[in-house]
Amino acid sequence: MPQLDIDLFDDFLFFALVSLLFGLGDDEGEELVIELGSELFLAQYYIETCKNLEFQRSKITRIFIL
What we know:
This protein has 66 residues and is an all-alpha fold. The chain has one domain. The protein is built from two helices and no strands. It has helices spanning 2-23, 27-65. The chain is elongated.
């Protein structure tokens, strides 16, 4: 089994190197990754902010109801 893990790791490194070689100098790919990363960050920030505001709203509502 350990040999299988090493073989899979070698295959992963080979494909990672090939993808880097073919993707090198391709600005569109880099821009796409940055755009996707920023969209994911903003989506996560929005969801966390909404949850935090909802928690604060419920907390304040409980304070005034009691």
